[in-house]
């Protein structure tokens, strides 16, 4: 699979899809760079699968346009778009061997048997399944079936690969292993990958950028680390990972540090690139791993409700005097000495640990 398989860029302009009064997609504008791995992430009903199916040609937009490589494809039939597509259920033909399944797209394109055999061999080698070419799908594990579906989607050297929850049917460990393999495959091939998932860890592990979707719109778009460290809204902060939320009113500002009056006492917060003024109400997001046991610039007393050891870390649920619930994650170095349930502990966090987000 050579340079001919280099990716193409995608541009969506005002893409909308209505089903009666329901807006599955609502004026979506998006640019996906050539060779990029973009993940559409969101809860059920957010529009991510509708957007992917519109790209594939299986959903006709109500409004808007789709450009790939500088040309509009909005009116093209799915088979004319020449994209590789992998579905959650793999959609393998049960009566065909692995080689037959992978070679099917080439057969319908009219290639000769020797050329099909060579391309199938290359595609199966790419996903490390050459030794299983003669088996039937029912003789394969879930992970092997997923690799066959990938090989079939890649065998005709598409410029783009569309993945619709391709690992949703796999167990957690296998899903993790295949996430890494798919990421490495993307890097080797250099094609444009667009992936749909509701799994935050999958999106973080594989993507160059993530588009977080909500109610048919893109809520926020960016690199995984940027989205995690600087969510713009409560929805993003709560959907991508977990967050604690603290509400307060700004009572003072000094050298970029704001003091807020909250239900559990004053909080100091580093404003960073999001300014605020005296009297402004702010909603702060605080990641559980940035909350610490012991005093800090921000200190609180809270009662331990649950404390669970999970091997790599521990999760502690706490309740402040105001009733505010807080989640605390302890790394492995501190996870062995968990506070007892029902005890009162002191918590602290740094002013730079919080991020001001827009309420929903």
UniProtKB/TrEMBL annotation:
Alphabetical list of Pfam families matching this protein: ABC_tran, TOBE_2
Domain ABC transporter: 10-240
Annotated InterPro entries: AAA+_ATPase, ABC_SmlMolc_Importer, ABC_transporter-like_ATP-bd, ABC_transporter-like_CS, Mo/tungstate-bd_C_term_dom, P-loop_NTPase, Transp-assoc_OB_typ2
A GO term for molecular function: transmembrane transporter activity
Key word Transit peptide present: no
Gene Ontology cellular-component annotations: ATP-binding cassette (ABC) transporter complex
Keyword vocabulary terms for this entry: ATP-binding, Nucleotide-binding, Transport
The keyword ATP-binding is annotated on this UniProt entry: yes
Any one GO biological process: putrescine transport
Full protein name: Polyamine ABC transporter ATP-binding protein
Taxonomic lineage of the native organism: Bacteria, Pseudomonadati, Pseudomonadota, Alphaproteobacteria, Rhodospirillales
């Amino acid at each position: 699979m050579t340079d001919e398989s280099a990716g193409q860029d995608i541009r969506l302009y005002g893409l909308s899809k209505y089903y009666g009064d329901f807006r599955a997609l609502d004026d979506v504008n998006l640019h996906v760079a050539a060779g990029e791995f973009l993940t559409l992430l969101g809860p059920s009903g957010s529009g991510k699968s509708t957007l992917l199916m519109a790209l594939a040609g299986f959903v006709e937009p109500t409004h808007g346009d789709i450009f790939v490589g500088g040309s509009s494809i909005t009116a093209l039939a799915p088979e004319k778009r020449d994209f590789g597509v992998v579905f959650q259920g793999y959609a393998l033909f049960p009566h065909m061997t692995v080689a037959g399944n992978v070679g099917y797209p080439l057969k319908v394109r009219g290639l000769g048997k020797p050329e099909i055999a060579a391309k199938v061999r290359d595609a199966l080698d790419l996903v490390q399944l050459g030794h299983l070419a003669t088996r039937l799908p029912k003789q394969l594990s879930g992970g092997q079936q997923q690799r066959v579906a990938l090989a079939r989607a890649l065998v005709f050297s598409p410029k783009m690969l569309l993945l619709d929850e391709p690992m949703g049917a796999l167990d957690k460990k296998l899903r993790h292993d295949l996430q890494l393999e798919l990421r490495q495959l993307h890097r080797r091939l250099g094609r444009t990958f667009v992936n749909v998932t509701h799994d935050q860890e999958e999106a973080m592990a594989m993507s160059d950028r993530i588009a977080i979707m909500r109610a048919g719109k893109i809520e926020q778009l960016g690199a995984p680390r940027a989205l995690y460290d600087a969510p713009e809204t409560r929805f993003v902060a709560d959907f991508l990972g977990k967050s604690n939320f603290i509400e307060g009113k700004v009572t003072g500002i000094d050298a970029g540090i704001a003091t807020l009056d909250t239900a559990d006492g004053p909080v100091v917060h580093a404003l960073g690139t999001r300014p605020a003024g005296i009297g402004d109400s702010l909603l702060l997001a605080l990641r559980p791993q940035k909350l610490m046991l012991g005093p800090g610039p921000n200190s609180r007393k809270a009662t331990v409700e649950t404390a669970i050891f999970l091997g790599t870390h521990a999760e502690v649920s706490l309740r402040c005097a105001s009733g505010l619930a807080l989640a605390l994650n302890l790394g492995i170095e501190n996870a062995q000495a968990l506070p007892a349930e029902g005890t009162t502990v002191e918590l602290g966090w740094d002013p730079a640990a919080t991020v001001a987000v827009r309420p929903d």
